[in-house]
Amino acid sequence: MQNSFAARPPSPSVRARPASLSRRPRPRSAVVVRCQVEGEAAAKSVGWAPPGPYTGRDPEVKKPAWLRQRAVQGEKYARLRESLGELKLNTVCVEAQCPNIGECWNGGSGAGGEGDGIATATIMLLGDTCTRGCRFCAVKTSNKPPAPDALEPLKTAMAVASWGVDYVVLTSVDRDDLPDGGSGHLLKQSELSSFIPYRTLELKPGILVECLTSDFRGDLDAVSSLANSGLDGYAHNIETVKSLQRIVRDPRAGYDQSLAVLKHAKISKAGMVTKSSIMLGLGETDEEVKQAMADLRAVDVDILTLGQYLQPTERHLTVRGYVTPEKLDFWKEYGESLGFLYVASGPLVRSSYRAGELFA
């Protein structure tokens, strides 16, 4: 495979640093969880791939000021954190150490205080261990993760009901070890979240449910079933530009496969809102970003999020450059000019960033 990651010159809008080649070891809430492995022994125990030529930290690279966040606090944040702990539910927000956790869980106004916007958290289903090993992701991996918790859908419905939220985001790890890729489990979850705590008990008849899914290995029947399960929004991330897919994502994922998932979700249900996300700072060029955005519009994706890639550990992809807030503002304007209904673009924006407000 050609080393396009190392050979391509950086975009003039991105200040790139040399990569290290070290091989050393309407709404109120939504929730996502990803678990991060700590320590080399733990990493090996869950089957992480060894460090490669695209990983390692560059000691000369310092995060710019616009990526700094205040310490998290706030009553809404504390309440959600306690509820998740009691029910033993996973969230990407906590486990992946998302920099937006305070802002999203508090409903705006940044990490240090509560806002009057829509609180958003993203619940991660099917456990905390993924069968894939994408080089950007901090979730632990294994070829044989524990079996899914049969009570997880009910626990999640209980949590959502106790929060009194109007918008919930459901996501999951990839489960290539399961015959249906885990789509059946997600189907039960979306139905429970939609009907048990709200429509059956008449607590919140108008709740909106978004699901951020895997690609189910390209199984479009699974996509169709989930799209017709009562979801209001269907999200799936292409993650990066086409030329960097094999470097950034697990080989079982793919650019064209992801576009097919988004296209099928859109046509499977009339009025379905679809969403995707692109990480920046991995060595992509401006023209490649423009092409990725055009490809997403070609399959009628409605909402796009763009944000700065941040390296979780030295075992993950090295940051190739930091994109300025001004450049991210440009991408927002450019995306809207292509016809996206909404584009969220900022240094700390992630795929579920304040998702309820974006959807509304």
Short description:
By secondary structure, the protein is α/β, with parallel strands linked by helices. It has a domain at 75-275: TIM Barrel, CATH 3.20.20.
Written account of the structure:
The protein is an alpha/beta fold and 360 residues long. It has a domain at 75-275: Alpha-Beta Barrel (TIM Barrel). Helices cover 33% and strands 13% of the residues. The chain has 13 helices and 12 strands. An 8-stranded mixed sheet has the order 2-3-6-7-8-9-10-12. Strands 1-11 form a two-stranded antiparallel ribbon. Strands 4-5 form a two-stranded parallel sheet. Residues 1-51, 109-113 and 192-203 have low confidence and may be disordered.
Number of strands: 12
Helix percent reads: 25-40%
Structural class, from secondary structure content? alpha/beta
Largest sheet: 8 strands, mixed
List unreliable stretches of 5+ residues.
1-51, 109-113, 192-203
Task: Give the overall silhouette.
Answer: globular
CATH superfamily descriptor of the domain at 75-275? Aldolase class I
CA(first)-CA(last) distance: 43 Å
Short key terms for the protein model shown above:
globular, two-stranded antiparallel sheet, TIM Barrel, alpha/beta, eight-stranded mixed β-sheet, 13% strand, single chain
How does the SSE layout of this entry go?
Blueprint: H1 4-7, E1 14-16, H2 40-45, H3 75-87, E2 90-91, H4 92-95, H5 101-105, E3 122-125, E4 129-130, E5 140-141, H6 152-163, E6 167-172, H7 183-200, E7 208-212, H8 220-227, E8 233-235, H9 245-248, H10 255-268, E9 273-280, H11 286-298, E10 303-308, E11 321-323, H12 325-338, E12 342-345, H13 355-359
Parallel strand pairs: 3-6, 4-5, 6-7, 7-8, 8-9, 9-10, 10-12
Antiparallel strand pairs: 1-11, 2-3
Helix pairs in contact: 3-6, 6-7, 7-8, 8-10
Domain Radical SAM core: 113-341
Pathway: Protein modification; protein lipoylation via endogenous pathway; protein N(6)-(lipoyl)lysine from octanoyl-[acyl-carrier-protein]: step 2/2
Pfam family, one: Radical_SAM
